[in-house]
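Chain and conformation:
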Amino acid sequence: MLAEKPYLIGREKPLSKREISQALRWAIEAELDAISFYEQLAELVEDERIKHIFYDVANEEKEHVGEFFAALLEVDEELGKYMKEGFDEVEEETGIKVEL
């Protein structure tokens, strides 16, 4: 398992696949938090120029989520299978069809 804070990781060997998966999940979590943070700030700002900046940065964080997810799907081979099953279940139960 990784440390609570990445800079506390003292390693003599490379991270295992499991540890890389955890690191990528933490990175995704951080990006999702950043998206919420910037979008909430944007909603508080009346100046449209500044609001635009916050939304623009939030959108960049969304791209980062995609980058980390792509890497996570490469490292965690089972994740893609379970995500597909989840997408199929949502479509079956609600009619919502998601394609990436």
